[in-house]
Design a protein that fits this description.
This protein has about 140 residues and is mainly alpha-helical. It has helices spanning about 1-5, 10-45, 60-75, 90-105; strands spanning about 50-55, 120-125. This is Glucan endo-1,3-beta-D-glucosidase-like isoform X1.
């Protein structure tokens, strides 16, 4: 009976089982990779969604002041000067949001360009108000 266990038939049967197990494992992986490839290709064909950067409402004054100063040292913040389109409402969170967005847009709209020590928030809704149009490049 021992000779039956090591017979050529047994080895052939073991190879068939091994082959079917391999197919059962790799076939779903192949399907998954094809599906992911299609998803990536279709997402690259779509237009990117517009985004803006604004200050988180929970940010404290010191952080907002720091964000405003830093952003305006890197980009042109003339729109925030008195009698300009984005001066009103004349409050810190509004001014910081405009400046942070100017910086975010100028640096390429990467999520890390809106981080500002975790006080920035990327928005998919245009935050423009009144005559103040938030820049989108």
């Amino acid at each position: 009976m021992n000779s039956l266990l090591t017979s050529p038939k047994r080895k052939t049967m073991a190879r068939k089982i091994e082959a079917s197990t391999s197919l059962a494992f790799f076939f779903p992986l192949l399907l998954l990779s094809l599906a992911l490839g299609r998803a990536i290709a279709s997402s690259q064909g779509q237009l990117l969604q517009k985004t803006w950067c604004v200050a988180k409402p929970s940010s404290d004054e010191a952080t907002l002041t720091g964000n405003l100063n830093y952003a305006c040292s890197q980009v042109d913040c003339k729109v925030l000067q008195k009698d300009c389109l984005c001066f009103y409402p004349d409050n810190l969170i509004s001014h910081a949001s405009v400046a942070m967005n100017l910086y975010y847009q100028a640096r390429g709209r990467n999520y890390w360009n809106c981080y500002f020590r975790n006080s920035g928030l990327v928005s998919t809704t245009d935050p423009s108000f009144g005559n103040c149009s938030y820049v989108y490049y």
